[in-house]
Specification:
Blueprint: E1 2-8, E2 12-21, E3 24-33, E4 36-42, E5 47-55, E6 59-63, E7 66-68, H1 75-87, E8 89-90, E9 93-100, E10 111-117, E11 120-121, E12 133-139, H2 140-148, H3 155-167
Helix pairs in contact: 2-3
């Protein structure tokens, strides 16, 4: 296998791979990403803590909090850190929910979804300079309805909420 790095940015890179699969030479263009942690945080009133975030080119979207892993960072550690930074909430526990690849054919990114529990508001938001977001709390059943009617289109939110609902037999 031969790899040629085309671009290296702040959060992703682009490489071209030449490899052999079942005796055939193939070329693959890959977006390389360290991965991310995403948190489904549900408070004691069954409200999901979400963020309304500006996501170019789509404008504002509603999604669960998430963040890119630092180099060699454990996804659970990232989940605790990002929940506090983006929402001001601290979780006592992060339970693994699902890990998935949002674009498996051309992207190395894996998103590690967790259920955050034992939530306590401890601080104001600690956003990166380029993050534009606010916190919203919505009943879990309403979030499921928003997914069903297309108001929530973010893949990590859809995967985490529907996996959680399926495991709880809510959906």
């Amino acid at each position: 296998m031969k790899k040629k790095k085309i671009y290296e940015g702040k959060i992703l890179g682009l490489s071209i791979y030449d490899l052999v699969v079942e005796g055939r030479k193939v070329k693959r263009e890959m977006i390389e990403h360290r991965g991310a942690a995403a948190m489904l945080a549900i408070d004691e009133d069954n409200k999901v803590i979400l963020v309304k975030q500006h996501r170019f080119p789509h404008g504002y979207v509603i999604e669960i909090p998430a963040g890119t892993l630092e180099k060699r960072e454990d996804p659970k550690k990232c989940a605790f850190r990002e929940l506090e930074e983006e929402t001001g909430y601290r979780a006592k526990k992060m339970t693994p929910l699902i890990t998935y690849y949002p674009s498996i054919g051309y992207n190395t990114e894996a998103i590690h979804c967790f259920v955050a529990s034992g939530l306590k508001k401890i601080a104001d938001l600690k956003l990166d300079e380029d993050e534009i977001l606010s916190v919203v709390k919505i009943d879990l059943e309403k979030v499921i309805l928003m997914i069903k009617n297309g108001k929530i289109q973010d893949s990590k939110t859809i995967c985490a909420v529907l996996t959680y609902a399926a495991k709880k037999k809510l959906y």
